[in-house]
């Protein structure tokens, strides 16, 4: 940019304005102001040896130029200089032409801006009427000559404004910036532009030029010049859309997802709540109408005396228990599939009980064979392979980008923040801090890897050949502490921030302040000296994974990490805070294993073992028996069963992991930590159900062989276990459809573990249960079966306890069972209670639906890493202080850019470019950054390539010391006519991409586009290239998701308008691709899971109505869980999606046993139903009385215990996505299964079937007496 500044020296630059200041002229250096008279002319020398030439003071008459000078003027400034005198000489015009070259390369894409720019400079330098608008105010004498050092120039407001407006939107592609940032210091109006250009400074104007608005010299006035508009009617001056918003076509409005609202409420939420309220109103109206009709009918009957006796009370259903009437409505049909299942499980149970050693041996051998796969066990640690589906569009596009353009660079980033005093945070920069930080950067550059001994210079990105890319505020001071002055460092900083082009780092790219500073105290303030945070980025080349270069970079990054940990402490001593991330940091922190989580797993298993042992033992061990003879506890305890149950869970886990390790499916740390909880919660449930049913058979049929009792227990509970096992396994397996490997593999491992666990429970556990019962009946000690407890045997024999007991002498059911059958179930099934239950649960369902739009998407990196990770503050600072967004590349592939038709689909700066070309659309999207998330101009290689060929840019494309296209026919022009195609295009393009980017030719493509274009030399084609821009600052997961979605939309629009194959790429896209389809995928998978629940329920229960009720109940629970996610701040992502699928399976487990007990009611228990419980009500009561206690103690409580332990995890991802979701699961699944489902079944359930085990045998008849406690004596049987 030095040459641009030197325009002043040639007298050829329009310069500076100082606002509306009235200037008083002191000394008269330009005494005469009249037409045809000059004010300055020729060159008279410089202030110093290295200074630029200054013009001579000359108030003489303008002179006619010779032919040579006339030709120079017309070639440079246009045909209007074909006649008339001038106030310049050949030397000035030569200097003007040389210095205009740089400006021409920046703004030549916009003819109007270029014409205004050149017109200003040419008029300033050579106008014959100089004295009318120029007044010299200061001079100096040197070598007998008078040199001009300051002057005033008058420019009309109309021209100044028009000049600025024609140039303010011009883009300079190589730097992704506005031309105004380079030529005008980021000016916001024409006065700022002129002030920047005219200010006397090193590297700027060699003399001061002021532009007063008002002037006391009446003979002076601005020349009446008319500026060209960027949208000028003359096509020769009209600029392209990318540089002139006024002529751009309007893009269609973008309708955001979820934009349908009724006021502030999403349409779905409004519709859900409105529907519920309408239904509630209709139901209330129906109730009121029914009550009114009943009263009317009663009065009518009384008047007509047609009927006698009181009307039935609405509360008759809450009367007392009777034994017989309900049996009139008992099922009369059998269900063949249930009979088959019952028979199959009975035979399986009999085999396992008859041959326990064989069964246990086969189970152990099979588990050992499967577990041998653990020798092939591998854990995947690469975040990209863990969290990105290899078949996703983003992953495939990343692979294409890396293969064609090279892997995205490695970034090592630091934030230095002054917020250690929250009450008074201050500026991060100070004189001492700058010097200290420069020392830190120097030490970083000297670091060497511990293994390969590579240093930063060996590894860094060098776009211009030798200088490394380091984005730091130190670059504003040339990385030199001697350039930092205690008194002037703030001035220097502000100057560089205002005009980064004047303070470029060694690698040549201007460093915008928003890339290195942030956290300004006031949103309206952008004073860099007041910024509370600064960020520094060291950029390294990236290479294919596993390559030697990649290992060397990782080795150096490890050394850098250790150095920055030390710098953190140094920053603390200075009252500052430093956070950082290296390229290897995220993977390392994600793969940290914490001993705390391992301890939690062990603790959960111990708690579950103790609960299972105590709870199972309480079935046969009463407090009275324990008080009478404590020795009975040694026999009746169930610690062996508890150990066996836990051991089976562990066997299923190792078998599943081993099985899938055999086939090469890699595990993840989530699998290691989470699957034990899932299998434990699911596995222990079935153990409780089997043991509870077995103990009932011990009561009802103690004289039968143990094998028969075990067979019968499994026959009754097997179909329920099959029901829940199929739905759970299938639900978990549906998670395999999620493309994210970490989640997919987790789902597969979990499905395998649950399935294997179910098999072991109906085989191996039955064998263990049989052996345990044989031990107990022989009065042998639990855990020590070789020891016989004689005292307990005497007590058991004398008191007729379980071993050898008679039915009428057995102990009553437990407190929980009696509470459910005598209190809870009768009240729940009352008419008024049913109405309340339906109202409440349907209301929860409506609220859950209303909350669906409030569930956010995303998986914050801070959740996936340990709470004490050094990356947590880094991500916080990234969201808080980063003022620049990540780069985004729009890649065009599968085209031949050497063809004119394809070029016109990509370019933007030429008249024949398509109006909605790739670059034009990107520019239009940039103007609505709030929707597009695109904030910077597009770096278009093809536009800059054609500009590089422009012969006016004499220092760019040169052949034999002449511009390449100097004598081309047709000449270079903005219509693209005569531009190269085919092999010629490829030849020039190669030269362009190798041309250095320097002050002589900033359009050179080496630094800006060296890796942006793929050339197929054999076929002379350009099959792929990318166009670079940037997102706006992204400060949340929602921003990242929307930015990715927007980039996808833009690429689709480009493809639709141009026919090109275009996709967007940014480094973070692969991690956010899942959110493009996560909502649809969630709907499809949950819908598939519910459809599967319906099918399995229909087949195994034999009733479409009951299957519908069960499926709807599960759906309600899932919707409520999703609503709870919105309230608890759990976002939707692949992890929570699999959790929701798991929730379907576990919710079915809550419901399956009650639904089957409803369809196949126990005859014995059904006879105890209340006298007015008929039909479905009686069967609903029977289901609760039969399995309600088991569902609560064996399913609900076990899951509560397992989930509660997770509350103490230190892993945030477990706490949010597992603990919170599973708490909601237990709450909603349990309440829906134990409260809503019985009510719904009593209202809408299907016809039941005969229980195959209820055969009116002597044992069943005698078992009636076992349940006499349900009715509590004769008094309770009567009204």
Give unreliable regions as ranges: 4-26, 311-324, 798-812, 1255-1279
What characteristic shape results from the CA principal axes? Answer: elongated
> What structural class results from the helix and strand content?
alpha+beta
User: Strand percentage, roughly?
Assistant: 5-15%
Tell me the distance between the termini.
105 Å
Q: Characterize the biggest β-sheet.
A: 5 strands, antiparallel
Computed over alpha carbons, the radius of gyration is: 42 Å
Number of strands: 22
**How many separate helices?**
47
Oligomer: single chain
Helix-residue proportion: 40-55%
Mean pLDDT comes to 82
Can you give a write-up of this model?
The chain is built from 47 helices and 22 strands. It has 1279 residues and is α+β, with helices and mostly antiparallel strands. Strands 10, 11, 12, 13 and 14 form a 5-stranded antiparallel beta sheet that branches. Strands 20-21-17-22 form a 4-stranded antiparallel beta sheet, sandwiched between helices.
Short synopsis of the structure:
By secondary structure, the chain is of the alpha+beta class.
Compile the SSE list and pairings:
Blueprint: H1 2-5, E1 40-45, E2 54-57, H2 67-77, H3 90-107, H4 111-126, H5 130-133, E3 134-142, E4 145-153, H6 157-167, E5 171-172, E6 177-178, H7 179-183, H8 190-198, E7 208-210, E8 261-262, E9 265-266, H9 267-304, H10 336-354, H11 356-371, H12 383-387, H13 393-405, E10 410-417, H14 431-445, H15 456-459, E11 470-471, H16 489-498, E12 517-518, E13 533-540, H17 548-573, E14 577-581, H18 585-590, H19 595-617, H20 623-628, H21 632-636, H22 639-662, H23 669-700, H24 706-734, H25 741-762, H26 764-777, E15 780-781, E16 784-788, H27 790-798, H28 815-828, H29 831-851, H30 861-864, H31 871-881, E17 887-893, H32 900-906, H33 918-926, H34 929-932, H35 941-948, E18 958-959, E19 962-963, H36 982-994, H37 1005-1009, E20 1013-1016, E21 1021-1030, H38 1037-1058, E22 1061-1065, H39 1069-1072, H40 1078-1101, H41 1104-1128, H42 1134-1159, H43 1163-1166, H44 1176-1206, H45 1212-1244, H46 1258-1266, H47 1268-1271
Parallel strand pairs: 4-7
Antiparallel strand pairs: 1-2, 3-4, 5-6, 8-9, 10-13, 10-14, 11-13, 12-13, 15-16, 17-21, 17-22, 18-19, 20-21
Helix pairs in contact: 2-3, 3-4, 4-6, 9-29, 10-11, 10-24, 10-26, 11-22, 11-26, 19-22, 19-23, 19-44, 22-23, 22-25, 22-26, 23-24, 23-25, 23-44, 24-25, 24-26, 24-40, 24-42, 28-44, 29-41, 29-45, 33-38, 40-41, 40-42, 41-42, 41-45, 42-44, 42-45, 44-45
């Amino acid at each position: 940019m030095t040459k641009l500044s030197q325009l002043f020296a040639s007298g050829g630059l329009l310069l500076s304005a100082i606002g509306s200041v009235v200037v008083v002229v002191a000394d008269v250096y330009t005494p005469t102001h009249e037409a045809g008279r000059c004010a300055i002319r020729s060159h008279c020398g410089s202030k110093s040896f290295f200074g630029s030439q200054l013009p001579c003071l000359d108030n003489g008459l303008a002179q006619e130029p010779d032919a040579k000078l006339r030709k120079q003027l017309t070639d440079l400034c246009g045909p209007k200089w074909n006649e008339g005198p001038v106030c310049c000489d050949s030397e000035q015009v030569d200097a003007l032409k040389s210095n205009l070259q740089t400006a021409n390369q920046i703004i030549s894409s916009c003819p109007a801006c270029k014409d205004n720019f050149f017109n200003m400079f040419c008029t300033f330098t050579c106008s014959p009427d100089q004295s009318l608008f120029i007044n010299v105010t200061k001079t100096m004498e040197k070598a007998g000559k008078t040199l001009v050092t300051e002057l005033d120039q008058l420019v009309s407001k109309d021209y100044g404004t028009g000049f600025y407006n024609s140039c303010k939107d011009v883009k300079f592609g190589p730097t992704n910036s506005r031309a105004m940032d380079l030529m005008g210091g980021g000016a916001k109006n024409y006065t700022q532009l002129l002030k920047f250009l005219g200010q006397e400074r090193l590297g700027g104007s060699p003399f001061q030029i002021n532009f007063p608005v008002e002037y006391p010299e009446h003979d002076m006035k601005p020349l009446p010049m008319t500026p060209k508009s960027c949208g000028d009617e003359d096509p020769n001056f009209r600029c392209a859309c990318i540089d002139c918003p006024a002529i751009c076509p309007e893009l269609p409005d973008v309708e955001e997802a979820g934009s349908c609202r009724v006021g502030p409420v999403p349409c779905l939420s409004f519709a859900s709540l409105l529907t519920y309220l309408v239904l509630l109103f209709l139901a209330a109206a129906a109730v009121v109408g029914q009550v009114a009709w009943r009263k009317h009918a009663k009065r009518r009957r009384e008047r007509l005396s047609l009927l006698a006796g009181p009307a039935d009370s609405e509360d008759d259903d809450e009367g007392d228990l009777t034994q017989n009437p309900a049996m009139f409505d008992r099922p009369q049909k059998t269900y063949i599939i249930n009979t088959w299942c019952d028979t199959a499980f009975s035979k399986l149970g009999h085999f396992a009980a008859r041959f326990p050693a064989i069964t246990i041996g086969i189970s152990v051998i099979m588990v050992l064979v499967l577990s041998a796969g653990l020798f092939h066990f591998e854990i995947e640690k690469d975040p990209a392979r863990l969290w990105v589906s290899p078949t996703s569009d983003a992953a495939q596009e990343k692979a294409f980008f890396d293969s064609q353009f090279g892997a995205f660079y490695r970034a090592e980033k630091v934030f230095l923040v002054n917020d250690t005093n929250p009450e008074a945070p201050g500026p991060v920069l100070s004189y001492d801090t700058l010097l200290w930080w420069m020392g830190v950067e120097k030490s970083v550059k000297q670091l060497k890897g511990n293994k390969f001994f590579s240093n930063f210079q060996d590894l860094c990105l060098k776009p211009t050949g030798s200088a490394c890319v380091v984005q730091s505020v130190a670059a504003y001071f040339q990385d030199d502490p001697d350039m930092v002055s205690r008194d002037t460092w703030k001035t220097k900083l502000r100057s560089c921030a205002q005009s980064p082009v004047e303070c470029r780092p060694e690698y040549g790219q201007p460093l915008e302040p928003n890339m290195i500073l942030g956290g300004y105290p006031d949103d309206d303030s952008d004073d860099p000296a007041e910024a509370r945070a600064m960020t520094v980025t060291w950029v390294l080349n990236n290479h294919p994974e596993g390559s030697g270069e990649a290992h060397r970079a990782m080795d150096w990054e490890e050394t850098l990490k250790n150095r920055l940990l030390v710098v953190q402490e140094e920053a603390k001593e200075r009252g500052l805070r430093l956070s950082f991330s290296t390229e290897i940091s995220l993977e390392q922190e994600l793969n940290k294993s914490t001993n705390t989580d391992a301890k939690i797993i062990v603790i959960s298993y111990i708690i579950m073992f103790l609960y299972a042992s105590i709870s199972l033992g309480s079935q046969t061990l009463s407090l009275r028996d324990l008080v009478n003879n404590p020795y009975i506890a040694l026999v009746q305890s169930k610690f062996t069963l508890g150990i066996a149950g836990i051991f089976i869970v562990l066997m299923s886990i190792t078998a599943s992991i081993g099985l899938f390790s055999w086939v090469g499916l890699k595990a993840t740390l989530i699998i290691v930590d989470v699957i034990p909880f899932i299998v434990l919660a699911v596995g222990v449930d079935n153990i409780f159900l089997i043991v509870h049913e077995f103990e009932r058979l011990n009561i009802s049929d103690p004289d039968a062989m143990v094998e028969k009792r075990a067979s019968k227990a499994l026959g009754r509970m097997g179909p329920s276990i099959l029901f829940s096992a199929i739905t759970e396994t299938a639900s978990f397996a549906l998670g395999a459809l999620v493309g994210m490997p970490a989640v997919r593999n987790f789902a597969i491992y979990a499905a395998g573990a649950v399935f294997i666990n179910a098999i072991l429970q109906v085989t191996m556990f039955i064998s263990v249960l049989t052996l345990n019962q044989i031990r107990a009946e022989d009065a042998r000690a639990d855990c020590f079966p070789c020891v016989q407890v004689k005292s307990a045997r005497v007590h058991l024999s004398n008191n007729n306890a379980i071993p050898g007991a008679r039915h009428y002498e057995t102990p009553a059911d437990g407190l929980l069972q009696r509470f459910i059958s005598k209190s809870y179930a009768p009240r729940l099934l009352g008419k008024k209670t049913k109405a309340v239950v339906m109202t409440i649960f349907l209301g929860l369902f409506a609220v859950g639906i209303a909350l669906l739009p409030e569930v956010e998407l995303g998986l914050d990196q801070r959740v996936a890493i340990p709470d004490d990770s050094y990356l947590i503050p880094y991500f916080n600072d990234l969201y808080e202080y980063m003022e620049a967004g990540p780069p985004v590349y729009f890649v065009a592939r599968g085209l031949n850019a050497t063809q004119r038709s394809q070029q016109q689909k990509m370019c933007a700066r030429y008249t024949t470019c398509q109006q909605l070309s790739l670059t034009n659309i990107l520019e239009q999207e940039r103007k609505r950054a709030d929707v597009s998330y695109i904030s910077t101009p597009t770096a278009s290689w093809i536009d800059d390539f054609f500009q590089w060929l422009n012969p006016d840019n004499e220092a760019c494309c040169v052949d034999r010391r002449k511009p390449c296209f100097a004598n081309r026919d047709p000449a270079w022009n903005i219509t693209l006519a005569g531009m190269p195609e085919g092999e010629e295009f490829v030849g020039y393009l190669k030269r362009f991409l190798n041309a250095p980017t320097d002050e002589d030719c900033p359009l050179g493509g080496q630094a800006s586009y060296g890796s942006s274009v793929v050339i197929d030399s054999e076929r002379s084609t350009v099959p792929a290239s990318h166009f670079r821009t940037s997102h706006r600052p992204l400060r949340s997961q929602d921003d990242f998701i929307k930015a990715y979605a927007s980039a996808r939309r833009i690429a689709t629009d480009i493809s639709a308008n141009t026919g090109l194959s275009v996709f967007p790429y940014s480094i973070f896209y692969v991690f956010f691709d899942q959110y493009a389809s996560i909502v649809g995928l969630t709907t499809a998978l949950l819908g598939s899971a519910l459809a599967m629940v319906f099918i399995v329920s229909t087949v195994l229960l034999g009733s479409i109505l009951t299957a519908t009720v069960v499926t709807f109940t599960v759906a309600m629970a899932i919707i409520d869980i999703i609503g709870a996610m919105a309230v608890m701040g759990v976002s939707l992502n692949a992890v929570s999606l699999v959790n929701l699928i798991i929730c379907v399976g576990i919710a079915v487990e809550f419901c399956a046993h009650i639904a089957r007990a409803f369809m196949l009611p126990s005859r014995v228990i059904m006879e105890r139903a209340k006298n007015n419980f008929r039909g479905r009500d009686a069967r609903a009561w029977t289901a609760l009385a039969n399995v309600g206690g088991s569902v609560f103690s064996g399913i609900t409580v076990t899951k509560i215990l397992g989930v509660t332990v997770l509350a103490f995890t230190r892993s945030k991802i477990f706490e949010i996505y597992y603990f919170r979701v599973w708490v909601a699961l237990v709450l909603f699944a349990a309440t829906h299964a134990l409260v809503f489902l019985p009510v719904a079944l009593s209202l809408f359930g299907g016809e039941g079937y005969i229980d195959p085990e209820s055969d009116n045998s002597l044992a069943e008849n005698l078992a009636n007496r076992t349940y006499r406690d349900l009715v509590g004596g004769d008094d309770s049987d009567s009204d």
